[in-house]
Hints:
CATH superfamily of the largest domain: Dihydrodipicolinate Reductase, domain 2
Distance between the termini: 26 Å
Amino acid sequence: MTAPNILIVGAGSAGRRHARNLHALGATIECFDPRSDRCEQMRAELPIRASFPAFDQAVARAESYHGVVIASPPSFHVDQSIAFAGRGVPILLEKPVSPDLEAALRLEKAVTDTGTPLLLGYTYRWWPPLIEMRKRLSEGVVGTLRHARFLMSAHLADWHPWERYQDFFMASRELGGGALLDESHFIDLMIWLFGRPAAIIGWVEHLSSLEITSDDNVDLLAEYSGKFRVSIHLDLYGRPHEKSVTVVGEQGTLHCGFDPPILRHSAEASGNWKTTTFQCERNDMFFSVAREFLDMIGGRRELT
């Protein structure tokens, strides 16, 4: 079987990670990035088949690609995805889909009209502790659900220590950065675990002294039927870094931690937790996404 040839659009940290994982799974890699230094950095890590400084040059070779990974800043996601959807090239799209609804609906129409497969990179759906949490919730281990808390707090300056945080796309509202869009992982997880809420209210703000034009603080409260509430807090200024999901029911609590990867369950007032520890690393979920994308390309499974 011919090795799948994958184009990586955007050779930043996310694009390079996808490239490494896809190459490890047997794919050949090409890349586009307007910054030649980023393509060269990818080339130093992997045998790159070709690289392009202009997007049109990459699109012109669409017939040679078995798939494309869109890992550019969010403001470019929709137009770049539509360019390949129009040529029937399967797409792995980094989150978020788009900074605005109108553009996202344009992409939805494009992939629907062309029948182009598209996989969204909400990678925490492949995180083993969360998969186990979802399984246990479906089994009713904590009884009737009353409250869930999602927390992500991590100082932006610590994300990419090799560059000034002010130069990172996350600092730019125009490029689609900010806590709400980038950490929409946790909104996706809420929907994955509990379905769509009946109502949601929230605050999206810039509160800290970070030199950014994007938001750095998000607080959301979602209402579900059956007297169940979900709160989500996201920020880009917290130290130490924290990330967790906690679900409280009438018969106990489940708590998912990310570092280290654990799932805890308790139904006792004393907090006597039964802890399951997982032997997984952050890249494992990205590797699972890459594997599913190649499976999708090969027609070996359908998206759900």
